[in-house]
């Protein structure tokens, strides 16, 4: 029978147990083992359901058991301790407060927007790496005391749950999430009515949303929910699913996230007295409309559009996460125009100006498209990619927004991602480290752990994964229609003493789920090797609209269904945080073989590393930055060579097999005197000790604070309305005057130069004449740029030498500049001279995308050469 209506009966906790309710509402339990264990003690029966989920647990526990616990002195003592610990965690000064005490200028608050958040499996509001990174960002911010307010949407179906059909085709299910059964609180006004955010839509419709709050340690996470009675049926579904629906549906989601999100933050600050954010950080372009809402707010105070843009830019940080075009939202311009027209949202903000912000200017850009990443970059004075390599790929990719500049000078920096150790490190590893003098927050204490102990622990963790895999595989086969009696073979799937390789991630094509299947015979040989076998655990969800991805899943499933190898390779459906937390610690090797350089960072390998699992990966993302042969392997790649994809896959798969066969497996099975693989253990130790401290989300968040949030807050404070207007006027004046700015004449005096050569260590004196039109020397910076030159006269490895005004204007109104240029490199050398706009409120001199070069230097050649 189906119920006709559902509601939630909340448990009534006896008085002495009241603190459990506060503990359950703060998601700190998702990374705090003691809190989790306390909840597990509430009902040892329910505890079997593996993942910690206190809200559900309290909803399921019997009144009798609660009455019993209310009299259990020992339990009450533990409860008091854990509650006190949470209170200290929430109220005490942390890293951020220390920085402030030492006089650092830091933002009073930062608003952090993301379309998805992966905080815990019990709040399934993520699809993959982007969301889990956002969750880790919140947790690390909480640990560091960073005053973050996070903003997202509450998807009533979250992302889908994956299972398999008999023949291996991905099946999607969308369970209904009831917010009352989740660790969420509805935000209400003082009179008790739910706070509301409303957006006007075309045709006189409107979109209403309530705001749910999840508490992630010290950080509030506000989630907008459109499933409310005030909405028409269509609008109720705006927040139905993560990354579902067509283009208009996505646009409405992003309007709610960006515009509604700013309003939710304002509501939260009004109700709680929380300081207003001085910095807005957008995690990928999806939340980019937040900039438009802030422009509207400022327009309401009388500021014109251009000045408002300056003010918004100063306090905005934009993080780009992917060089894969499918990862970037692009809308039809006409669709955007319709939603931001006169009867749409933001009536005070001109639709033409909005459309301009999303125009693609790169080669191949399409005029009919509104690009959210491009708007994100135009509305943020500071932007970054998520690894060193991805920073440089992004500078190339978006160079069209800063014409005239080499990609190296495009103002997009990088902050390499990190992962939240308390969430991702197995409790057993944590305890081992603590036992050897390690302290939480220090991950380099593995050096003193004896080999035997480390190896026994690795084996125990591998054993746990074997058990977990068998349980999941059994459940999956039952769903695929197998009878229990057919499944006896599952008891011998995987072996706790065999080298275990993990590969789990979403299934977009660039991640190459099936690269390992390139030569099936070869793979079978590796799996079934008589003395040095390997076993592989694979998992991953394909996007519901991606049939190509589903075909890859099916290929892998079919290969692993083969009775010859099914005890050595498994595909587990429904990859998510719960599975991930078991998988990383239990694998020996984490495999990653994307098409370089399309993996912007990748974080699963970092989580594996924190648990002593070794990385075997293409040199992409973070691995390109931190790989060392002491603790892992680099799969050679054929990127950059012109060849077709098939051939490239063949080559790279061949290299992978060879590495496993010749290097990885021999090292794992090479046992010394006491039966220990000493060299392997040494690599585990190096992974924990050397990589451990780098891959942390604490490191990442402190970099965001120091390199992006703090300068953004300072810039934002400087831009009061008057200053914003001055800056906007100055930019307009410089843009208008720029066509008349020119480098007219360059002359070099080289004391020892003869016939186009000069001596190392000598100094050139440059004298140049510059035309500035109506601009003044104070508006510009004149520089010599010098360095090694290639055959086409391109300058690489450039050094910049500022030139100084020398006297006033000449008779023709041109300005003289001069300065020395030190020749400190041998070989082909060249220089050019350039003029750039200069203003103290610019973050970099490339900001306006304006530069004047000598005629000869246009294009990519250097100007004046000496060979
Ligand atoms: C870490 C993580 C990811 C991201 O992994 P990548 O290596 O970046 O692809 C995806 N899903 C889950 C469940 C994760 O824990």
How would you sum up this structure, described in words?
It is a single chain. The chain has 867 residues and is an alpha/beta fold. It folds into four domains: 15-91, no CATH class; 106-417 and 705-718, Glycogen Phosphorylase B (Rossmann fold); 451-692, Glycogen Phosphorylase B (Rossmann fold); 730-866, Immunoglobulin-like (Sandwich), CATH 2.60.40. Helix content is 37%, strand content 18%. The strands form five sheets. Strands 1, 2, 5, 6, 7, 8, 9, 10, 13 and 14 form a ten-stranded mixed sheet that branches. The chain has a seven-stranded antiparallel sheet with strand order 21-22-25-24-23-26-27, with no helix packed on it. The chain has a six-stranded parallel sheet with strand order 17-16-15-18-19-20, with helices on both faces. Helix 11 crosses helix 27. It is globular and about 95 Å long. The N and C termini lie far apart (88 Å). Mean pLDDT is 93; it is low at 859-867. It binds pyridoxal-5'-phosphate. Pyridoxal-5'-phosphate (PLP) binds next to helix 7, helix 21 and helix 22.
| Total beta-strand segments | 27
Gross morphology = globular
Which regions have little confidence, pLDDT < 50, spanning 5+ residues?
859-867
What would the average pLDDT be, to the nearest integer? Answer: 93
Ligand roster: pyridoxal-5'-phosphate
Look at the structure and name the CATH superfamily of the largest domain. Glycogen Phosphorylase B
What number of domains? 4
**Helices and strands: which structural class?**
alpha/beta
Radius of gyration computed on alpha carbons: 30 Å
Tell me the fraction of residues in β-strands, as a range.
Answer: 15-25%
Largest sheet report: 10 strands, mixed
Task: Output the CATH class name of the largest domain.
Answer: Alpha Beta
Please bin the fraction of helical residues.
25-40%
């Amino acid at each position: 029978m189906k119920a006709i209506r559902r509601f939630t009966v909340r448990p009534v906790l006896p008085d002495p147990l009241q603190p459990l309710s506060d503990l359950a509402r703060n998601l700190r339990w998702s990374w705090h083992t003691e809190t989790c264990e306390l909840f597990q003690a509430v009902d040892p029966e329910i505890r079997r359901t593996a993942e910690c989920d206190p809200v559900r647990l309290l909803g399921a526990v019997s009144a009798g058991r609660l009455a019993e616990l209310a009299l259990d002195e020992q339990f009450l003592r533990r409860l008091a301790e854990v509650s006190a610990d949470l209170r200290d965690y929430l109220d005490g000064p942390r890293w951020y407060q220390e920085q402030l005490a030492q006089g650092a200028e830091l933002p009073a608050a930062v608003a952090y927007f993301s379309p998805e958040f992966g905080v815990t499996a019990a709040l399934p509001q993520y699809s993959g790496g982007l969301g889990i990174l956002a969750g880790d960002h919140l947790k690390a911010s909480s640990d560091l005391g960073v005053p973050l307010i996070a903003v997202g949407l509450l998807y009533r179906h979250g992302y889908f749950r994956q299972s398999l059909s008999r023949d291996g085709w991905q099946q999607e299910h969308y369970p209904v999430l009831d917010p009352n059964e989740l660790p969420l609180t509805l935000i209400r006004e003082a009179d008790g009515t739910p706070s509301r955010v409303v957006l006007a839509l075309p045709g006189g419709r409107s979109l209403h949303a309530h705001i749910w709050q999840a508490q992630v340690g010290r950080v509030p996470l506000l989630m907008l929910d459109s499933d409310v009675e005030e909405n028409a049926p269509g609008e109720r579904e705006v927040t139905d699913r993560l990354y579902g629906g067509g283009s208009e549906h996505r646009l409405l989601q992003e309007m709610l996230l960006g515009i509604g999100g700013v309003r939710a933050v304002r509501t939260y600050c009004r109700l709680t007295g929380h300081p207003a954010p001085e910095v807005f950080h957008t995690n990928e372009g999806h939340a980019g409309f937040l900039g438009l809402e802030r422009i509207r707010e400022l327009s309401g105070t009388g500021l014109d559009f251009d000045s408002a843009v300056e003010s918004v830019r100063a306090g905005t940080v934009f993080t780009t996460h992917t060089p894969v075009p499918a990862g970037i939202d692009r809308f039809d311009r006409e669709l955007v125009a319709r939603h931001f027209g006169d009867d749409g949202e933001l009536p005070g903000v001109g639709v033409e100006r909005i459309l301009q912000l999303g125009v693609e200017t790169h080669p191949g850009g399409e005029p009919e498209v509104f690009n959210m990443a491009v708007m994100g970059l135009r509305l943020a004075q500071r932007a970054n990619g998520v690894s060193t390599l991805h920073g440089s790929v992004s500078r190339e990719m978006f160079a069209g927004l800063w014409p005239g500049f080499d990609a190296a000078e495009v103002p997009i920096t990088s902050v390499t991602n990190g992962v939240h150790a308390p969430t991702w490190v197995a409790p057993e590893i944590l305890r081992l480290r603590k036992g050897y003098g390690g302290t939480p927050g220090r991950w380099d204490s593995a050096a003193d752990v004896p080999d035997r102990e480390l190896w026994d622990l690795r084996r125990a963790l591998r054993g746990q994964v074997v058990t977990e895999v068998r349980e999941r595989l059994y459940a999956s086969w039952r769903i695929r229609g197998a009878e229990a009696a057919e499944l006896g073979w599952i008891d011998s799937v995987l072996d706790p003493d065999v080298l275990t390789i993990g590969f789990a991630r979403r299934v977009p094509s660039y991640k190459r789920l099936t690269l390992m299947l390139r030569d099936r015979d070869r793979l079978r040989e590796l799996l079934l090797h008589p003395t040095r076998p390997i076993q592989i655990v694979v998992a991953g969800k394909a996007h519901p609209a991606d049939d190509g991805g589903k075909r890859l899943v099916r290929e892998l499933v079919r290969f692993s269904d083969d009775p010859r190898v099914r005890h050595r390779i498994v595909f587990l459906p429904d990859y998510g945080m719960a599975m991930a937390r078991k998988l990383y610690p239990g694998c020996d090797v984490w495999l990653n073989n994307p098409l370089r350089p399309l993996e912007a960072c990748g974080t699963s390998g970092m989580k594996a590393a924190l648990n002593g699992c070794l990385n075997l990966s293409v040199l992409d993302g973070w691995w390109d930055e931190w790989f060392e042969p002491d603790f892992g392997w680099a799969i050679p790649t054929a990127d950059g060579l012109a060849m077709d994809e098939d051939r490239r896959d063949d080559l790279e798969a061949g290299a992978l097999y060879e590495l496993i066969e010749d290097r990885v497996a021999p090292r794992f099975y090479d046992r010394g005197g006491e039966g220990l693989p000493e060299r392997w253990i040494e690599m585990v130790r190096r992974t924990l000790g050397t990589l451990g401290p780098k891959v942390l989300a604490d490191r990442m968040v402190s970099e965001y604070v120091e390199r992006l949030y703090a300068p953004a807050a300072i810039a934002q404070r400087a831009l009061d309305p008057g200053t914003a207007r001055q800056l906007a006027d100055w930019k307009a004046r410089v843009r208008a005057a720029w066509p008349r700015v020119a480098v007219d004449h360059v002359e070099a005096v080289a004391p020892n130069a003869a016939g186009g050569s000069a001596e190392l260590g000598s100094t050139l004196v440059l004298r140049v004449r510059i035309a500035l039109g109506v601009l003044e020397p104070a508006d510009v910076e004149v520089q010599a740029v010098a360095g090694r030159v290639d055959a086409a006269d391109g300058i690489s490895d450039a050094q910049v030498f500022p030139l100084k005004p020398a006297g006033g204007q000449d008779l023709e109104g041109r300005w003289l500049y001069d300065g020395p240029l030190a020749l400190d490199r041998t070989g082909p050398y060249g220089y050019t001279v350039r003029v750039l706009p200069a203003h103290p409120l610019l973050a970099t001199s490339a900001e306006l995308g304006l530069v004047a070069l000598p005629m000869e230097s246009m294009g990519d050649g250097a100007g004046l050469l000496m060979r």
